[in-house]
Amino acid sequence: MERLRGLRSACTLVLGAIIINHRSIHRILLAVFAIVAPAVWSSNAAAADDGLHYINAMKDAITEVIDENQDLINKTPDGQVKSKKLLPKAVYRRAYGIFKKIVGADFTPKSLKGEQDPKVIAHYLACLLQAGRITIAKSQGDINGEPDGAKKLKKFIPAVFGRLVSERFEKKTGVQVKQTTMGKGGYGARNAYNQPDDWEKTALAKIVGTDWELNKGFGETVGANFRYIKPIYIKKACLTCHGVPAGEVGPYGHPKEGYKVGEVRGGISIKLPTS
User: What is the bridge-based pairing of β-strands 264-273 and 218-222?
Assistant: First the structure.
């Protein structure tokens, strides 16, 4: 019996030591976690600003702008949908198809996961917005057309679409995206928000030059930002508002500038923080 009591006491001591050690280990782990966790969360927060984050934000901005303007561009007087091609997902699918033609068929958004190079990120963002603008330009017939065959100008043109998307994107990310132009001849930017700043004036002068490579962007680090601009070219659909003869009033009340297909209208300008 005494031997059993002694064995029981020994077991109790061992078990107590295990519990104490377990609690000590637990306290140690908590202390380590308290030190390491902030660094881990900080690292994850920084990773949220990679290329994939930005390209997804641009995709969301495009689809949200199309969705919010459905009543304007895609509803009949009695509230029916005019065209499935103008639904947000359909518009984005078409824009993404054009985007892939610009950047290459092998591109996948996942390739931007972890990408921190501002030059790479800015290029893809500009290309996706450019593709959206082209899609809206090609959709003007559907946007302005009515079921009875009549045409009603909705003023939802590429420049308006691009501005709305840029504003939405900046709210999401803090990154400034802007459509800008020097104009042509005596005709400058049509709106104050399209006026180029000093850096953009210099950059536009570069990409408008006849020796500038087609579709090539220009970028450089300026202070704490990477500044980038990608040319916007005049397409056939643009001529209604921007074509010849110069000075003739277009459908939205602005004088045409006399552009021809293939000329540089301006650029998509991006200011991406480098830190």
Answer: unpaired
Neighbours of 160 (CB within 10 A): 17
Q: What does residue 231 show for φ and ψ, rounded to 5 degrees?
A: -60, 145
Per-residue 3-state assignment (H helix, E strand, C coil) for 169-204: HHHHHCCEEEEECCCECCECCCCHHHCCCHHHHHHH
C-alpha torsion angle, residues 141, 147, 149, 155 (rounded to 10)? -40
Structural tokens at position 86: 């103008």
pLDDT tens, residue by residue, 200-246: 999 999 999 879 999 999 999 999 999 999 999 999 989 999 999 99
Helix (H) or strand (E) holding 269: strand 264-273
User: pLDDT of 143-177, one tens digit each?
Assistant: 999 988 999 999 999 999 999 999 999 999 999 99
Vertex 99: Cα angle to 141 and 168 (nearest 5): 75
Whether the pTM exceeds 0.85: the reply is no
